[in-house]
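Reopening this one. Same input as before:
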Amino acid sequence: MESPYTPHKFYLRSPTPSLPPTIIGALFHPSMIPLLPSPLPLATPIIANPNFEIKDAPHKGFAMYATRDIPEGGLIHIEHPVFIVPNKPLPRDHAGYDQVGSQLPRHAFQEMMTMANCRSKQDCPSPVEGIARTNALSIELKFPPEMDAYGESAKKYGAAFLILNRANHSCGPNAAIKWNLPTLTASMYALRPILAGEEITKTYVDPSLPRSQRIAHLQENYGFTCDCQWCNLPTTSSSLDSDATRAALRIRLLTHPSYPKWSTDLARADDVVLNSHFDALQLIEQEGMHGLQGIYLEEIALCYAILGDEDRFRMWAERLVRRCKVEDSRLANTFESYLDDVRRFKRWAWRRVQRKQMQGKKKRRHRILGWMEI
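Same output, byte for byte:
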């Protein structure tokens, strides 16, 4: 079957007339083009005073470091990809990768060629393909029905970024990346507070996997041995404990109390979900798996809302909004509206009201029983 991919070049006009457009190279099936944002978005302006710098790091090549304190949820960088390519390998005689590289502006191509390439020439004859296989981040695109003929693997795409890809790996990353199709951008944001001078890291592997599997995956796909603190625990016992904790966190919401069922079950204690979630946040902090925090922050805030505890609701809702501004802007906007007026939450203080009504019914029943005994 003929390859479904052909090279394309997209120009994103700069909002500043004096600046050149941003160019994105791509390998797409032609039928995908009408499903891209139309008109194409304007190029994202360069951040004037970035909160990070890229510099050499011992045994790592380049690395990204915070130049000032970055709060939890804070935006670190927003960027258009230099190219977008399929994850599926192309036939060895397919020139698509080299064609994509040749379409890029000279400065972008030269910068791209300094990025890590852990693939051999035998594996990836084109250096552009090797760089893509090493660096591309998975992204979501829209696909027409005719792409079904090429299988699901043909719908998996990755994008490479000249700056975002400089962030190195950690099994306890302090940053994450969010792809936005309408703007054709990826945004990096802080998963926890990052101190000035601290290295900014993302994860290249599912951090809930056991240490041995994480190390094997990183060696096979990226050619390095992870030296993060969670892969260098002092004893075998502590490594096994870490593996068990990470595996438990992966499925914790399936095995522990959560907000949806508890919220209508008055037989459960008012603090059962709160206590469980506080424990989860401690384990998340211990393992550096801050990417899991969002759902717990949301449910803690919801618990206090349905209990009618406004002070604690505001404390947790404000933290959730800060955390989710980039990660989930719709959720952040929803909770901002609740913070403006807590009564916008339709079930505000529902459990407290139900408790009072139940107590009132018990008192009336006791009075009736007392009257009947006279």
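So the earlier flakiness isn't reproducible anymore. For the record, Residues 236-350 form one domain.
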